[in-house]
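Following up on my earlier thread - several people asked me to post the actual chain instead of describing it. Fair enough. Here it is, all 532 residues.
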Amino acid sequence: MMFAVAMTFIDQTIVSIAAPSIIEELGLSSSGMQWVVNAYLLTLAAFFALGGRLADIFGHRRMMLIGTLIFVVSSVLCGCVPKGDFAQTWLIIFRATQGLGAALMFPAALAVVVAVFPVERRGRALALFFGVTGALTAIGPLLGGWLTGAWTWRAIFWVNVPVALIAVVLTVLARIPNQARREPLDVPGAVLVAAGMGLSVLGLQQASAWGWSSFVTWACIVGGLVLLVLFCVYELRAAHPLIRLQVFRDRAFAADNAVLFFAMLAFVPVFFFASVYAQVSLSASPNQAALYLLYFFIGFAIASQWGGRILDKRGARPAMKLGTLLGAVGFALWANKLTDLSMHDQWPYAALAGAGIGFLLAPASTDAVNRAIGASYGEVTGVTQTVRNYAAAVGMAIFGTILTHVTTNRVVETLESRGLPPEVSQDVARSVAEDVTGHPDGPEPADVSEALRSAEDAVRMDFAEANQWVFYGMAIALGIAFLCSLWHPGTRVTEEPPVPDEGPAPETTAARHKAPVTDLAGEPGPEPGPDP
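Reply from S.P.:
Thanks for posting it. Predicted structure:
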């Protein structure tokens, strides 16, 4: 299960490092490349809860294998994208199906882990499962940089093939029982949450192209948010909801997810924006950009260990407070140094920002899972993973819009100072902002080409200044997360929540797992009770 889920974490970050190479070869726009990253995050968030429910209906092992197959086929097709006008659409479509495969695979794999471990060993198993797979996020940029530099950016997708084969072989050898239960599927809920997330992110990401004064922009944003509200209302009244929103009645659980939402606005997007900044403004190679991101991960890895210890000794609240505060300061200081255009001078601030995320991520996620209603690990993990991936998609959309808007304005000023008329400067600046390599496609008039050549260093600085706005925005997001951490009551979970005895509680993913069929030694466990 860890081999399978490792792919979903690696693919959240591996594409970011190859963005300039993909843009240059396929002729993608900046917003198009952001959609390539976001299509994966958005479908993973929108269909995660549905994937968990389908795993319950058709069986965890079967759905894990189906999700893995969809994921690896999509990966191969992403790597085989043809050049030409259809390249951007092709890549976005199969990145979306990659996310769908991950959404089917991840909850099924988690359910298998919950089912085969007895209660007394389940906590340690889940800690290993989330700890190792989450840490593999760090491999994404390093692996992506090496593959892009040594071979081709297409290999960042093909590398999933051997990992998937190992996962499938191990799954077959493990002889995992395939438990399936007939139950209704919340189709209206699945449609509402997918449409709501998709519309809201579409409006936010296209705002720079459509304009903030555009009716279509606000129709998408407001319409998406309205659909998400309708989803919440529907789920609270549904007999068999996709997500049991009653879990948010626990103040600590709600605070954990609020912290995760605002922290994830920065955590996944930072890989894309820092990587592109390094390769454009710092003229770094993909390998050098990967090492640049390594500063962030060093801080993240060290702080993750301390964060876990703080959680064990004092609970999640102190770790979240410290992490959000350090993260806000780290991102702000990092933003301030971006215009120095020196990679090595930025490492303390990148490491500090990474340490902030490291301190809070595991404690917030673990505390939320520990507060499961009726020991419903699968259910609350579905909620937290949906929140995390939707926040990452929103962060990509918002910060991408900011980057394009500020870059355009800065480049306009630079070109006008070089003698180009305002209307020409505006058109060229928009083209430069959409092409993050800084070299618009197609022939340019002689005076425009000369102005661009003379302003090349200035344009790189303009792009660095635009990224400053993005990183300051990430610091603000962590500052809001700090305020959310103060809302946490500070209570600690010292034992597994009991399964409620009274009344026929609604059937949930983890309630179905409370009596494992076998333990790791192969000894039979108690048989599951009858269906409600």
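DSSP finds 21 helices and no strands in the chain. That should answer part of your original question.
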